Amino acid sequence: MLAPNIDMHDGYRAMMTSLMKSISVLGSTGSIGTQTLDVADRLGWSVEVLAAGRNLSLLTEQIDRFQPSLVVCHPDIASSVRDHAPSTVQVQAGDDALNDAARVPVDTVVAAIPGMAGVPPVLSAVEAGQHIALATKEAMVVAGPIVNTAARATGARITPVDSEHAGVAQLLIGEDFEAVDRIVLTASGGPFRKGPADLTSITPEEALNHPTWSMGPRVTIDSSTLFNKGLEVLEAHHLFGVSLDRIEVVVHPQSLVHALIRYRDGSLKAHVGPHDMRLAILWGIEETERPSLGLEPMALSGVWEFEPPDLDRFPALSLAYQAGRLGGTAPAALNAADEMAVMSFLSRRISYPMIADVLRATLEGVPVEALSWEAVKRVDASARAFALQWIDSHA
After folding, report:
1. Which of 153, 55, 155 is nearest to 113 (CA)?
2. Residue 61's domain is classified under what CATH number?
């Protein structure tokens, strides 16, 4: 029998105290971080650690609401945060403090710092044997084998927060992996799936207007170019231990089918749900417990469309596959180039199609090294310099 829909009032929260989770939120003022805290508020989780950048006003609001024991922020605002925080809250600043915060014992570390900056604290959490709800996809993209080796050594667990990977993880429960032929990740296709034919006039404002999801600026731009889907392919490759040739991408504009698996017999199984990242966050932390968030049920109506991605208009997806097949530090170089290219597009230094040009030039111009954490850091720096130099000469 289905459980009744429960209103998220104080009485219900009191009922949940025996199930209370303790969490750390790395990237608390970003899109995933704020939605994680919304889920924590609804379910009464204990927020032990908040880590953020420079958003002073939002961070102080979060401190007042959740009363964490530790806050880590950018050095620029540390003094102001200390002045605001009560004496029970320890305030630290800088990268070393962030890495230490990832080791604080909690039920789950929510890793939601975007880009390469979010990778070191993920590694710290893994080395400490934590359970990590992973939204920082770059950790698996640039250092997947390193992360997996460390997790096996320490017993750390990683559960995905991306809607697509959370969908795949749920689809694989109880399945014989040998019976699965392919994993299928869905992409919305972004705002330019149907036009304009000439992408050179696209503005940052247009590219940031995503048709279905609310995300941070870089992820939104990457979604529009399909590069974010390329990163998700590389993430799935390492998360689920499946070859790149067995990971398929299909465009599904409605963003209601998040992932599918194809069986060897030709049948498929799909994970379906509203485009609400709070459900993926809930899965990343609670997994099969599935407590109610009090959300409206998804209506089963409308037309669902599926089509192949247009790799001529959006070559960034192909470049991600290419980097994955090259292996080593190639994905790290590609990710670094994308960070520089998106930043340059948002500041109007390059046109929209030039984002993919920067990726291609960097992938061709930066030598691939054997994978190690030191090599990843070295190639990340050299790829950023190469990409910026290319942009300077072509902008």
Report:
1. 55
2. 3.40.50.720
